Amino acid sequence: MVWVNDIIQGILTGGLYALFACGLSLMFGVMKVVNLAHGDLAVVGGYVALGVITVTHVPVLWSFLIVVPIMAAGGYVLQRTLIQAALDRGVLTTLIVTFGLSVVIENALLQFVNANSHSLGVGNAIITGSFSLGSQIQIAYLLVLIFAVAVVVLLGLQYFLSASRYGRMIRAVADDKEAAQLSGIDYRHVFGIAAAIAFGTVALAGIGYGMYSQFAPTTGTDTILLFAFAAVVIGGLGSLWGTLLGGVVLGVAQQIGSQINVSDQVLAGYLVFLLVLVLRPQGLTTRRAQS
Amino acid sequence: MSVATETTVRSGERIRVTRSRRNVAWTGIGALVVVVVLALFPYIVYAGTTTIMVQAFIILTLASMWNLLAGYAGLVSVGQQAFVGLGAYFVLILALHGTSPFAALPVAAVGCGVAALPLWWLVSRLRSGYFAIATWVLAATVMLFIEKFSSIGGGTGMPLPGLSGYSPTILTADTYWVGLAVTVVALAAVYLLLRGRLGLVLTAIRDDEVAARSSGARVGLARLLVFVVAGIGCGAAGGVLAISQLQVQPDAVFSVQWTAEMAFAVIIGGLGTIEGPILGTAVYIVLQQTLASYNAWYLIILGLVAIVIALFARRGLWGLIDDHLHVRLFPVGYWLWAPDSGGRHGRGGLGGLGRRRGGRHS
Question: Of A151, B40, B133, B272, which one has the fewest beta carbons inside 10 Å?
């Protein structure tokens, strides 16, 4: 029964990891940018939510209605300026610039906010409450909610990319940006849109993480970026549903690890990641490329 | 056909190929003088200064290794703190078994080189950004693994034994000399490697990996060698860190801040030049000492400066100096003296990263 509980909890936390990972995956898929500042942006999302809640007194659960547009707009601007400038200069520059951004964000938060941990929505019945399944399994409402949000976001992204006009443009640009340019698409604008979506999902993930656990300036690199990346690699590069599977596998591995020894939670997740890297470097869902 | 003929005719004329436009023998003498003067520092300056210098030696060693990785082999590693930490822990483990930490240092460095082999096997198939984050995950994994052993301090770390017999003055001076020795060896090793066959192979890979492979360059082996050398160098720096701090804490030695500092020093000084890390480390230390009382500010400023330089002066401060004065203290490329003109930039081939687009001067 303990193991069933672990697996259920693991699957549900996997939703949170998938939410972190899908922005990373989207930006790599469309712009070939590996955003090393991804985790710090999620933490920024958490701090923005904290600020918005303090100022406007919106309920925590609805704060995303304000935070997501703010972060998305920020993402568009950042992509059109800094990240695009780095992209024009090559892969190495992109890595250096996003790594620099990560260090700057983390230390700016340390300098201007403080090193304390914060969490969102303490005392809210939905966020801290749980229900029982049988005698040994306690499931938090919040985890179910986050998992549902992750599934909705992934479904929405899937639908958006395959059916909408902008989704078509994003896929076209991801395939061949010069050809898309020739057909009259401004690829820089499309990159901006993709970044806005990625930042929107990262804001959602940041809020979710703030309710689920605590965040501090260093959480972005210590935890979020590495977990998101592990989920992407486990699931398979460039596959949205693979991201969810990757998140779930990571979550379950961590839960089982913590069952063996409380301090082994994170290590168990990374070991599964390394195992996948060795045995199935293409990830669990994607087939090996033919080339 | 005509190209070949022309080459033969041309080579009939006297084409001279040298390492540099100027004679660089004086650079060697200059470097020797600098090293000798630095070696005398413990006799002439305050202990506070040598402590800062030890820090500079650590950063310079790390920076020249990161430069080798990112600037010459195209491997952007964000996980070099794995080797800093391992180097520190190997020194600690040997010291716990009764070895003097100073004697343990070279063993620890070699140990890091050996540890680099399985780690390379794990990440070698990844490229660019994925390589970057995977090395980062690897460093985190190594730290979590080390923390499992309570005999070496577990999650909290422990003081480094074996140095209590030293008087503070002697210890400070010895630490300084060890740091200096590690840095000199590291810089010399990087310089000699890049002048030799490895430098040629790396340049060929950088210019066109497929062409390099088809010409018989052993691409995988070259990258493996760079990764191992960088592991040894970063491990040695980690050992010096352990000796200078007199304790080993997992969070401190495995901090990603080490990679941030080495990367920023390289980028500011000049990625893909031997001189860049030296200049970058000087800038880093000055900034850090000036802003020391403002907590996190020096990393914010360092990060911003690195971003600006990465975008607008890709070959860093040394690149700017080189562009205007054509100075190379440690040339690893070649200079082609065409018979008609007084000498031409033919060194794009082996110069540095900035020449990647090829033929700015050709």
Answer: B40
Residue A183's CB: how many other CB atoms inside 10 A? 9
- Whether residue B118 lies inside any domain: the answer is yes
For residue B296, the chain A residues in CB contact (below 8 A) are 107-108, 110-111
Assign residue B123 the CATH number of its domain.
1.10.3470
Q: What is the CATH number of the domain that holds A118?
A: 1.10.3470
Restricting to A residues 24-43, those with a Cβ less than 8 Å away from any Cβ of B are 28, 33-34, 36
The yes-or-no verdict on residue B3 having pLDDT over 50 is no
A285 part of a folded domain: no
Residue A288 resides in a domain: no
- Are A211 and A230 a contacting pair, CB within 8 Å? no
Q: How far is CA B321 from the centre of its chain?
A: 20
Domain ranges, residue B348: 12-355
Counting one residue from chain A and one from chain B, the pairs whose CB atoms sit within 8 A come to 122
The answer to whether position B5 is within a domain reads no
Q: Residue B159's beta-bridge partner residues?
A: B247
Asked if residue A284 is part of any domain, the answer here is no
Mapped onto helix, strand or coil, the DSSP state of residue A59 is coil
Q: pLDDT by residue (tens digit) across A103-157?
A: 999 999 998 888 888 888 777 777 777 888 777 788 888 999 999 999 999 999 9
Q: Which residue in this structure is represented by tokens 């992750």? A: A150
In order of A35, B109, B135, B259, the CA distances from A102 in angstroms are 9, 30, 16, 12
Nearest Cβ partner of B296 from A107, A230, A271? A107
Rg (CA), chain B: 22
Q: Is B2 contained in some domain?
A: no
- Domain range enclosing A64: 2-279
Q: Which residues of A touch B137 (CB under 8 A)?
A: 226, 229-230, 270, 273-274
Q: State if pTM tops 0.95.
A: no
**Domain total of chain A:** 1
The whole-angstrom distance between B296's CA and the closest CA on chain A is 6
Residue A180 DSSP SS3: helix
Residue A288 pLDDT class (50, 70, 90 cuts): low
Helix or strand holding residue B335 (H, E): strand B335-337
**Tokens (6 digits) for B295:** 């907590």
